[in-house]
Amino acid sequence: MATNAAPSPAPGQADPLVVLAALPGVPDAVESVRQAVDRVYGHRVMRRRAGEVASEAALRGARASAALAGADWPLEEVRRRSDFSADDQSRTVGAALRVTAEAGQLLSVWRQSPVQALARLHLVAAGGAAEEPTVGRPRLSGEPVVDETAGFEQIPLPEPSEVAARLDGLVGLLRSGSAAPALVVSAVVHGELLCLRPFGSFNGPVARAAERIVLVGSGLDPKSICPAEVGHAELGLAGYLKALEGYASGTPEGMSEWIAHCGRALELGVRESVAVCEALQRGAA
């Protein structure tokens, strides 16, 4: 998957994402995630205060996404700030907040045109700087890529022509309506975008926001209360990059490792939201 353009299944061929779902360890990860999500959705607080849980999950997810991109601010600092233009770290946090908020508005666009949704996410991450020719579109030959996340340079950067082909393949998979579990689809979207780095900047926040959109649109997390970004940050940048290298290898073992890593991250995000529910129940949040 990560070494070539993501193929669209031809008539009569097996769904390639379903094939990934059968790799060793993946069914267990899928089941563990499903049980965790069921637990948080069954929490009594969700009956009346789901909107508050979703807002807090979005804030915590954005903070974690920014941390992975090099701006590891305390949650309360993110909560109290209103100006995110002072320096590079501030701009990174602001981009993560904007992208996470925008992801909640893009499900219908994503279903029609994932590439258009990704372009919108990049535009929002960049602060709406539409006058910049590189904002809101995939990079062209010779255009640099700024990797906010230290270590991304270890993953080979594809040429723009390969990026375009692989994006087409990814879109084909998404439009074909894969029968693979949501964890598998979201992990592939996340991993593919991180490896492709289709934009000149903010690729990490955009990829993590796309993962969020897939989880919501799949019906696994329809209220967007399970911030996988929190889990990715909690598991640490070194583990994130190691698992991504497995995805980039394209081997069955590497793909399985990446999907399982995304599963663990999602479970940790669920645990965060359970804690939010319990705090709300106690009147402490």
How does this model look, in words?
- Helix content is 64%, strand content 0%.
- Helix 7 packs across helix 10 and helix 8 (160-175) runs antiparallel to helix 9 (182-196).
- The termini are far apart.
- 49% of the residues are buried.
- The protein has helices at 16-21, 26-41, 46-68, 75-80, 88-103, 107-112, 114-125, 160-175, 182-196, 203-217, 228-235, 237-249, 252-282.
- The chain is mainly alpha-helical and 285 residues long.
- The protein is built from 13 helices and no strands.
User: Radius of gyration in whole Å, from Cα?
Assistant: 18 Å
In total, how many beta strands? Answer: 0
3D shape: globular
Helix vs. strand class: mainly alpha
| Rounded average pLDDT | 91
Order of helices and strands: HHHHHHHHHHHHH
Largest sheet: none
**Quaternary structure:** single chain
Percent helix range:
55-70%
Task: Estimate what percentage of residues fall within beta strands.
Answer: under 5%
Terminal CA distance:
43 Å
Core attributes:
0% strand; mainly alpha; 285 residues
SSE topology:
Elements: H1 16-21, H2 26-41, H3 46-68, H4 75-80, H5 88-103, H6 107-112, H7 114-125, H8 160-175, H9 182-196, H10 203-217, H11 228-235, H12 237-249, H13 252-282
Helix pairs in contact: 2-13, 3-5, 3-11, 3-13, 5-7, 5-10, 7-10, 8-9, 9-10, 9-13, 11-12, 11-13, 12-13
